[in-house]
């Protein structure tokens, strides 16, 4: 999160504790406004998430965003509801402590959507098996059902939750969701019979009328026109442009199937059908003829509500064990009808929640211990033109939750400071908002006292008991100015969120007797007793259930999401500063900020702080080898922190002033410019090494994205090595060993290389050298592997002067083979005699291509007889052939003067060729 501090001038700070002027409400709202204009709807106050409803779809809830926040430290990424959800999940897994996420805000602030986003995040990121996937689907599909039966269109919100919901999501030891449990609080049952102008009844009624199949509507006796039913048009708003009842009905039917409802358990639909007709039927029962009554009851009998409708028009009195039935007038019957409708709908909703809970029950007995994350989606503070007893309960609940929020926040702060060994004094804290402990108990007493209880007697009792309280006023106790805006049947309470006028009409009602001959579905409601003073029962039960809820929340580790509504017109991009200032005030956000800033604005674990800012100190860069606390102390000393600006705890550093952190961030930004290239190199090297290592692991597989880089590198490396180590000549047989993938290609390259070297060699060879090679080839054919000294002769060149032949011009048969003394130092030339000297020398000349090496001498031939010694053969003509040694040591050869004709011709031809 610190990485976004540099953009704070444009989009504000991501954490309100970093506001320099943290005591200014105007600075707080301005920071909200900056971020809202940039579609940054989430901001932190420490660990508390503030969410502003954008009233439009934002591309921040995709699967990629879910992956971005999965398993990441809370402060390492920008504020998001996924960060809160993931932090709670990781805390549950690591600390093995149950968690809860408290979502609060006024109607229309986005609480229900926030809870759905959290459920979607867990459904996507948590591990899942086939059984777990079923639970995930049921958890997600419980929302459409509960919204249909528990949500309605109000002036402030087209999809306002008219009940409080606490949902426990149960996780096994693997962290997979395996079950759930839902507790509902204070369903606004009065909406069934009354809606303010511009509001609607619960969604399910309109979905049934608009989207129900023709056969279903015909079986239920309904028409596809909500205007026909008085319960659905009291708010004069049967249709809403932002709601598609037809498609919502299909979604509800699908959700009921996923949750596990069968056709026999679809009775709540029949109940809804009965309720929408109930107003018209009871009116007819009281004024119409008996025949009309019978016909109407026959239509309605299929709904098993005939016995219930009977008590709406009659009261049963037992006299001397005899039951007498006394008819009610229209006003009394209407009141009984409305009470019956509210009671049946309320019990239907409770039955529905119980069925959903049964489908979410964790049934694996082998692992009975599971961890829990609770989601509390409770109605926000409400102020209407007409505020009934239900609004009083809703606002009373918000008072309790606000008190709990402040207490737990302060407690969490103090515990963290104590755990780190830091002492902090919260001088600014004022007393918390007052709670009215007497109103519900006074209502109990008034309803139970002898005689007829009425609304006005309850109001009088309040005036007598709590009339002197500073936060309570009635028309009778008010000044003249206040009386102008208060009715005589109202009282006013000063809540933490402002003043609210409550109307006492309806705090008492007629007794209703429910007979026992009912459908089993209705029998399960346990309505078969005399229920005096229904508000008493509701208030007492609500008070007890609220106390139980507080116990549940106190037993868990809480996280908070505070939702803000930007405007009353539900327009995207509109920021109503007056409305938002009011919500900031009654949500206690400024108080929460002051609690957080009473001590230190910024806190981080040593390893996180050191990892981020270590480059600012030469002693800690690039790595600190000692203790983390010592490293942080060295770093802050180098940065020049003053003692009053920070404290070092046992595992965290606490920085008191945001300007200290901002200065550190600016120094880091400056440092980043010099480290930018290094960082790029590091990132490139890391990426390269990781790809290389993975490619090495996959090197024996077919080419794929995982190994293609490694294979390309291996090919490139082999080719470069081959380039540096090519054979130097045609006799060099060396060749680099190729990788397996290039074995075939390597062999082709080797052959091409050899062919190229041979071609180049042959192109450069001279005629003399070519002649040498031809002689060497003949010698190879003759002597290779046949004569032992052949290998030694291969590198030696054939010299044309090495061997020559001398012969006389006379007719003798002698000839001399002259052998170079360099080649044979111990022997001289060879003197031979042949009767066919001409033929012999000719063949020798032809075979050795040495025609020019035959010398025909006149008179004498000199030859070598040893090292440094020469001999001479003297030739003289004579009549007789004679060879002898003369006195001068020469060899004397007497040859015939005239050669035979054939011999003479041969020598002539030989000379001619020479």
TrEMBL record:
GO biological process entries: actin filament organization; actin filament-based movement; endocytosis
Domain TH1: 715-897
Span of domain Myosin motor: 12-669
Matching Gene3D superfamilies: 1.10.10.820, 1.20.5.4820, 1.20.58.530, Kinesin motor domain (3.40.850.10), Myosin VI head, motor domain, U50 subdomain (1.20.120.720)
One function term, GO molecular function aspect: ATP binding
Membrane-crossing segments per the record: 295-319
Location of region: Actin-binding: 546-568
Compartment(s) of residence: Cell membrane; Cell projection; Cytoplasm
Top-level taxon: Eukaryota
Cited InterPro entries: Kinesin_motor_dom_sf, Myosin_head_motor_dom-like, Myosin_TH1, MYSc_Myo1, P-loop_NTPase
Keywords: Actin-binding, ATP-binding, Cell membrane, Cell projection, Cytoplasm, Membrane, Methylation, Motor protein, Myosin, Nucleotide-binding, Repeat, Transmembrane, Transmembrane helix
Residue positions binding ATP: 105-112
One GO cellular component term noted in the UniProt record for this chain: myosin complex
PANTHER family for the chain: MYOSIN, UNCONVENTIONAL MYOSIN-IC
Similarity remark: Belongs to the TRAFAC class myosin-kinesin ATPase superfamily. Myosin family.
Identification of the protein by name: Myosin Ic, paralog b
Source species taxonomy: Eukaryota, Metazoa, Chordata, Craniata, Vertebrata
